[in-house]
Write a structure and sequence with these properties.
Elements (H helix, E strand, L loop, with lengths): L2 E4 L2 E4 L6 H7 L7 E5 L2 E3 L14 E6 L12 H10 L3 E5 L6 H12 L4 E4 L6 H17 L3 E5 L2 H6 L4 E4 L6 H8 L4 E6 L2 H8 L5 E4 L17 H9 L5 E3 L8 H6 L5 E3 L1 H4 L4 H15 L5
Parallel strand pairs: 1-5, 6-7, 6-13, 7-8, 8-9, 9-10, 10-11, 11-12
Antiparallel strand pairs: 1-2, 3-4, 3-5
Helix pairs in contact: 3-4, 3-11
Length: about 290
């Protein structure tokens, strides 16, 4: 089978696989994706007739809203399709808010991060707006999702793909009224009861944890693995992610408990090689899920 590289990740594809079939297999609508093959833009009408060959290098970038012509499905359709096959979710603060932030995001998104959340409780609104421009730009370049923490109105203002709200933040109904139907809403849960409640509410994905105590959620007790097993049994098709000191050493037990998606903070942000840490986690998640991108 030919081996190709797409958005920095290596894939084996079936003999005779076309660019279009590769895009569709990732749950993407070809009308919402721009493809560059071996450094050259590929016209959309050539996706079906262009077969992938050994050594091909693809760059897949989603179309921005309103930029892909007639017949393109809404951003909400693309975002939910992208979420469906997302596995690795990175939360990071604004760091330096400039070149260092952009280099960090470039490296980790290329290494396999599917969603990146800007979470910085200390940043001023102006700092969040400035950092969001970098998050938005790099996420778009890598076909990833950009989520803003806590603030639905600011998520709309900065063009984020969605907002993540905790148990003490805006209600899901309030968040939906602000962000509309085309943006994603994520919900934090910390127990089986909260997880079950959120499944019956208007959110696009859930996070459950912390499995282990972590300084990123100071004072919140660890919940262990039993709620993870329960979540795996009841979540159905709703995407859900596990939080709480997730990293290469803690991931195996969580994946064995039925999880397929992780939220990671320090294992990547504090790694001496963030891209290598992201690649290792991506490989672990891919090995545990045939649906991984």
């Amino acid at each position: 089978m030919p081996s190709i590289v797409a958005n920095g990740r290596r894939f084996e594809v079936e003999d005779g696989a076309s660019v279009r079939s590769f895009v569709v297999a990732r749950a993407l609508d070809p009308a919402t994706v721009y493809v560059e093959r071996n450094g050259e833009p590929l016209p959309r009408d050539a996706y079906a007739s262009t077969n992938l060959c050994e050594g091909d290098v693809l760059e897949l970038v989603r179309a921005v809203a309103g930029g892909a012509g007639e017949g393109v499905q809404g951003e909400g359709v693309w975002r939910r399709a992208r979420l469906a096959y997302a596995r690795l979710y990175l939360c990071v603060d604004r760091r330096d808010g400039g070149a260092e932030l952009e280099a960090f995001l470039e490296a980790t998104l290329a290494a396999g991060v599917d969603l990146v959340q800007l979470r910085d409780k200390q940043a001023a609104p102006a700092e969040l707006r400035a950092a969001s421009e970098i998050f938005r730009r790099t996420a778009t370049r890598h076909g990833a999702l950009f989520i803003l923490n806590d603030d639905p109105a600011l998520a709309v203002e900065v063009g984020a793909d969605g907002v993540h709200v905790g148990q003490d933040d805006a209600s899901l109904a309030e968040a939906r009224a602000i962000v509309g139907e085309d943006r994603l809403i994520g919900r934090s849960t910390h127990s089986e009861v909260q997880f079950d409640q959120a499944l019956g509410q208007d959110c696009d994905y859930l996070a459950i944890g912390p499995v282990h105590a972590t300084p990123t959620k100071a004072g919140r007790p660890a919940i262990g693995l039993d709620p993870i097993r329960q979540a795996a049994a009841v979540a159905g098709d709703r995407p859900w992610f596990v939080t709480g000191a997730m990293g290469p050493d803690t991931a195996p037990d969580v994946l064995d408990a039925g999880a397929t998606r992780l939220v990671v903070v320090r294992a990547i942000t504090q790694s001496p090689d963030p891209a290598a840490a992201a690649r290792r986690l991506t490989e672990q998640l891919r090995a545990g899920s045939e649906a991984a991108w």
